[in-house]
Amino acid sequence: MEGGSERINQVEESRAQLLCGLPDDIALFCLARVPRKYHSVLKCVCRSWRDLVCSEEWYAYRSKHNLSETWIYALCRDKYEQICCYALDPALPRRCWKLIQGLPPRCLKRKGMGFEALGKKLYLLGGCGWSEDATDEAYCFDVSRSSWSEAASLSTARCYFACEVLDDKIYAIGGLGSKSSDPHSWDTFDPRRSVWESHSDTNVVPDVEDSIVFDGKIYIRCGASAVSSHVYAVLYEPSNGTWQHADADMASGWRGPAVVVDGALYVLDQSSGTRLMMWQKDKRDWVAVGRLSPLLTRPPCRLVAIGKRIFIIGKGLSTVVFDIEKTGNMEGVMVSSSIPRLNSEDDVISCKCLAL
């Protein structure tokens, strides 16, 4: 009896181990090096592997040891005026966009929603509809579990607002709300406590055109001011928690979607063709990096960056990839590669990157 019970204990212990005969820390060392594209396969092996791949421990380990792989997520609107979401693994040899299933039905028809990535989750925030006022509802998509769930509601119902991440917090800024004071407010979300906090400042404006995190500050490009036709921008200074007007020269050249690569600010000017511009902070001037072939880009486009590569994503998720380190042009046209578009005319609302 004693020997039999020993064998049972040994079997139970081996079942509990991630890899039979190996301590769990060694097993994690091995499994965490499996490429992200195979994580869905790992989850099918057994419950303990599934729980591991979906855990915070897995996410933290891969982040700590530089094993994370970044995918791009695009929030779009289809021909039926419903939102949809796609993912792209840029490391695949045959790169293609894949539809994410199961979006919350309540927000499919909403417009003006915030879209943000923080940790291993994507967030859909606020929004409004034809017969619906601005809402404070929030949803999140856990990329490791491939599942949607309700998230903590915004402090303030809002739509058509700026949404950025700074210091591991989500900022929902300005836009339109249900009260006159809402456009001059912003909310911050702390994922560790899962709560939103509300703030206000008269320099926060409702008319949000674009936003970016640059030099450790949040910049918002606003519409034309009431007294002039010039476009201007405001910035959030986290050291003292205040908003102030940004450099006028920088704002004047911010004429399209923006992205930061290696500390430098790039803007895609789509006003006359498609040109990539760079802000030279020391000279306070915008310079042209080059123009893109009209055969590849399908404006209006959005921008994201992974490392030194800028992904220019347009209608139908047509995607052009430009490597800053390999800057070159032929007769003024930038050398780039492209990813085939979908057989659709989906409009791209926002794009975010998430590493796992």
UniProtKB/TrEMBL annotation:
Keywords assigned: Kelch repeat, Repeat
InterPro entries in the record: F-box-like_dom_sf (IPR036047), F-box_dom (IPR001810), Kelch-typ_b-propeller (IPR015915), Kelch_1 (IPR006652), Kelch_FKB95 (IPR057499)
Keyword Repeat applies: yes
A Pfam family of this chain: F-box
Superkingdom of the source species: Eukaryota
Residue stretches making up the F-box domain: 22-62
Annotated Gene3D superfamilies: Kelch-type beta propeller (2.120.10.80)
Annotated PANTHER family: F-BOX DOMAIN-CONTAINING PROTEIN (PTHR46344:SF26), OS02G0202900 PROTEIN (PTHR46344)
Protein name, UniProt field: F-box domain-containing protein
